[in-house]
Amino acid sequence: MKHQLPHIEFKSGEDSNFGFEIVPIEKIITNKHKFDHDPEQPHQLKFYNLIFFTEGTGRHFVDFEWYTVNKNSLLYLTKEQVNAFEFKSTLKGYCLVFSERFFVNSFAHLPNDFVFRLFNPQLFSPLIQIPEDSEFKTYFKLLQQEYNRKQIFNHKAIVESLFIILLSKAEQLKQHQTKHIKESSQLRLFQRFTRKLDDQFTFQRSAEYYAQELAVSYKHLNYVCKALINKTAKQVINDFIILQAKRNLINSNLKSSELAYKLGFEAPTNFTKYFKKYTGLTPNSFKKSIKK
C-alpha cells in the first residue's frame, strides 16, 4: 500500500466529456499500470460510480467489506467511499462514472427523497442483481449506443435522460430485492439526521443531542432509525464514526493518536477503547489487517 490513501478525482479521457463516462472494466485492467494508483488497492472516490458486471464472477471491496459479484450484478459506489477491484480474467463489465455536478444536474427535477435513496449505503446494500430479462439491460445498451455517438444533436441531454431512466429501472428492482422505503417524512428526518451527524460528529456523539437539534424526541428519532435500517440512533452514530476512523486509518501517514484528536476524542486511549469495542481490533491491528 502507498503511504497515503489515493483520493481519485473524476478525470475524463474524452474531450467532449461533460462529467459522465462509460469505462469498460477490461480497459481498467489493461491500463492499470499506467494509473498513479493501483485499482486493486483501497482508494477513495471523489466521484460516483455505478458498475455493471456483464460476465464472470469476482469480488469488489466497498468500505471494508468484500462483495461477491456475478454476471448482471450492479454495484453502487458513492462519493467518499473506499473501494478496490479484484481483477480476474473472466470478469467483464462497465463503470459508469460521473461527477457530482452531473449527479446534481441530472436529478434536479426528481423528488429529493428519491435522490437521497439512490446512493446511500446506510439505507441499502450497494449490490443488487439484475434479472436476465430485465428492461435495465435494454436501456443500458441504448445508453451505451447514444453515449458513443458523440456528434449527435443534443447529445448531453439524451445521455442524461437515458441515465435517469436506467437508474429508475434499477430502483424498481430494488423494491423487490430490498426493503423498499416509502414513508417520505421518515426519510426526510433520517436525511437531516445524517447531515447533522456528518457536520458535527467530531464534537458530539450523543443521540439525545441530535434529537434536540432536529426538534424531535429521542424516542421518535430512535423509532425512525429502527423503521428504516433496523438500528438505533446511537448505532447509526457509532457506525458512522467507526467508518470515518477506518477510512482515515488506512492512510498510513496518520497515526492513531493523531486521528483520535481529529475525530474529537479527548485522549488516544479513549479512541482505542471505542474502536476496539465496536470492531474487536485496536486501530493499529486494523491497519495491519487491511495491509494484508
From TrEMBL:
HTH araC/xylS-type domain mapped to chain residues: 191-289
PROSITE patterns tied to this protein: HTH_ARAC_FAMILY_2 (PS01124)
SUPFAM superfamilies: Homeodomain-like, Regulatory protein AraC
Highest taxon of source: Bacteria
Transmembrane segments: none
Keywords assigned by UniProt, alphabetized: DNA-binding, Transcription, Transcription regulation
Pfam families the record matches: AraC_binding, HTH_18
UniProt KW Transferase keyword: no
InterPro entries linked: AraC-bd, Homeodomain-like_sf, HTH-like, HTH_AraC
Protein name in UniProt: Helix-turn-helix domain-containing protein
Source species of the chain: Microcosmobacter mediterraneus
